[in-house]
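#struct-help
A.M.: can someone run this one for me? Single chain, 469 residues.
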Amino acid sequence: MELSKAALFRDLPSVDAVLKSGVAAALLERFGRVAATDAIRAVLAETRATLKAGGAAIPTTERLVTSAFARLAGHDRSTLRPLFNLTGTVLHTNLGRALVAEAAIEAAIEAMRDPVSLEFDLSNGKRGERDDHIRDLLCELTGAEDATVVNNNAAAVLLALNTLAGGREAIVSRGELIEIGGAFRMPDIMSRAGAKLVEVGTTNRTHAKDYRGALNSETGVILKVHTSNYRIMGFTKDVSASELAEIANVAQVPLMNDLGSGSLIDLSPFGLQREPTVREAVAEGAGIVTFSGDKLLGGPQAGFIVGKSELIAAINRNPMKRALRVDKIRLAAIEATLKLYRDPDRLPERLPTLRLLARKRTEIETQAQRILPSVQSAVGSGFTVSVCECRSQIGSGALPLDTIESAGLAIRSTSGGLALERLAAAFRDLARPVIGRLEDGALILDLRCLTDETAFLSVLANLNLDTPA
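D.P.: on it. Structure tokens below:
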């Protein structure tokens, strides 16, 4: 027995012999000699362990190379993978929020490929400012005197508070001390910004007199926070931004209005609840307005700060601004996205976020009926598939109570148990994962965000129901 095992070990090819074989050429070409050598060595080690455990067959050189290729391909596959968002949440934070427009993608690629005039003034050959590429656009679209941009809205709030109220007091309603995703809380941001939090009012009711009573010589800013990710209903009272602006103006302190998701246009014509626009917040008298770029605006991740020129100038002088600035790639995508807003009539066809939010339920239901047979065939007789009504969400804290009529497919197990969890895992294991949601004893695939039907059906054909849960 020991002699036969020794003979098997002697028959195993060496690492060098495998690498010199013709079948290893593609392995070397794709992954390089160092990685290929390590992979072959690992596969041969596994083979020896199998032989020691009683295995009697020596794999062919081609099989050894195939195993090494699979090992390296698995390691080489990006963990940041494209997928099908069928959760019913359009701006899904965990799935990357807004899909950017083709114009923004093209602009980003161009900025990646070549040197660009990021901080170089072509008119005089001297150093320029990167904000110049989007400042005029933001002012045009919002009515603000000046504007700047940082890497997200939390950074915008942090930077603005640090500039306006660092070491001083910031007055805010208790009902607006929100927590956003990942247990990220407004009081914590204020503390890190160096502002001294002064709560006024109660959770459900805050009056103008509460703000006036809190004003003193140490007040740096009055802060209004749009409660974009929740609503307080019933016996409530808050103070409008325009009224707060009057209070701030009399006290000669700035009003900062954090809109959170932020929108440059009225979304009600598209069937969504009306939200205050950035232009309206500026017109109401806020000295500073902050908002996101990758939510309702439909662009790449960014935080915009617009408002009065002297306040923006102070923010730009803050040393923290450099640590929070955006790079040339994102700046190019932002500029291209903002330019689309100059033609609001064609926004739905050019801006993916708005196009997805504006899709009609009847259109989505027709799509669901069309692909149902293919989905039923893929999941097999252990499941039933039916068209169902859905309520899509905007997501990312935007319009939390506003849902949109949608349609999708409800997949139910005929055997019960963990079958649905295993099916969801199999969908996640596809070359391009499919992400739905488990709800009321079914795996729901809300089709609002399914735009590439052909690619979905192609991937679905490789569904493997043996995937472990």
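A.M.: thanks! The chain has a mean pLDDT of 90.
D.P.: also worth noting: The first strand starts at residue 84 and ends at 85.
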